[in-house]
Design brief:
Distance between the termini: 26 Å
Helix content: over 70%
Radius of gyration: 23 Å
Strand content: under 5%
Number of strands: 0
Structural class: mainly alpha
Order of helices and strands: HHHHHHHHHHHHHH
Length: about 350
């Protein structure tokens, strides 16, 4: 009962955070702006959204095949459809609670493919490690490619507004540089003086285990039969993620002229929103809107675009995740799943 209560409480907390971000992004909109967002949904060219959904499903299929490649060196040959169903059930579980999806999909392979939970979970860690490396590479690439736009955004929406409130002109760039240098020096000083205590702390040990897990995940890639194909699948998955965001741009007239660079910004910054709030509820559209401001897209159009991308992806996960739950026992009807 306690575990159920905790699970329900965690779900309600994450749902509440999502609703808070929805309210935060909508509270200052006028009635006319809200009508503009609704009009964007009504007049959107949904053919582009359907194409984006198709590419999204393809990316999830490639993820299934890639995960299967990590499992096979351990001596197991799971059926591709079971792996695919497990991935989508994991996605729908993650909409409810963080990390529940990883547990769910491994549990499915234990039940239907007789793969020990700890072994399949190790491959999930390896998979997440590869994805995190790719994400970090794309994140820093995005910062470099959009550095001038980001600087202009910070200058206009942060520095200038602070100066207006303070009624005083401040060299924020200079102060920021000094602050970064000072904080870096203090961090190194604390690290040196308290190293013995730090390395025994629970946080340090947890970070150490996390890093070691990442390294083990990278090593496991060398065990796959075709590392180059594994690498191709990994790059293809993220390229399809990029296209999922980019193609939806064509559904609205004001965003149809945006390029892949804007799509990369939406992918990376939007992914951060999904990491911060479970499923990205509320925060994802807000981040997309702020990202598209960098490209002179009106805030209301950016919000509409964010909701179009988020809702299409979320509905796909819910529909295919539910279908996976229904079809999984049907496809495995003849299999012995009594154990």
């Amino acid at each position: 009962m306690k575990n159920k209560a905790k699970t329900i409480a965690r779900f309600l907390i994450f749902l509440g955070i999502g609703i808070f971000f929805i309210w935060l992004s909508m509270r200052d909109l006028t009635h006319a702006q809200k009508k503009d967002i609704i009009s964007s949904f009504r007049n959107a060219n949904y053919a582009w959204i359907v194409l984006a959904i198709f590419l999204g499903v393809l990316s999830h299929y490639l993820r299934s095949v890639r995960w299967k490649m990590l499992i096979e060196p351990m001596g197991y040959k799971p059926r591709t459809y079971n792996v695919f169903f497990a991935v989508f059930i994991g996605y729908i579980a993650n909409l409810a609670l963080p990390r529940l999806g990883e547990v769910s999909r491994c549990g499915i392979l234990t039940r239907y493919e007789k793969i020990p939970f700890n072994k399949s979970f190790g491959t999930v860690i390896a998979e997440r490690t590869i994805d995190m490396i790719i994400f970090l590479v794309l994140f820093f690439t995005t910062l470099i490619l959009q550095s001038s736009r980001l600087y202009a955004y910070v200058q206009t929406y942060i520095y200038d507004r602070l100066e207006a409130k303070l009624n005083y002109s401040i060299d924020f760039t200079g102060y920021l540089t000094y602050a970064v240098l000072l904080l870096s020096f203090l961090f190194l000083l604390v690290l040196i003086l308290m190293w013995k205590r730090i390395k025994r702390s629970a946080l340090f040990l947890k970070l150490k285990d996390l890093i070691l897990g990442f390294l083990e995940g990278i090593k496991s890639v060398y065990k796959v039969r075709n590392p180059f194909l594994f690498g191709f699948y990994s790059i293809a998955i993220w390229f399809l993620y990029l296209l999922m965001a980019y193609l939806v741009f064509f559904s609205l007239p004001l965003t149809s002229s945006l390029g892949l660079e804007a799509g990369l910004g939406v992918l990376i910054f939007g992914s951060i929103g999904i990491m911060l709030v479970q499923g990205g509820l509320g925060i994802y559209p807000a981040i997309v809107a702020e990202t598209l401001v960098l490209y002179s897209i009106p805030h209301t159009t950016g919000l509409a675009m964010g909701w179009l991308i988020w809702s299409s992806q979320t509905i796909t996960i819910i529909v295919l995740g539910t279908l996976s739950l229904i079809l999984l026992p049907v496809f495995n009807k003849s299999a012995d799943v009594t154990d």
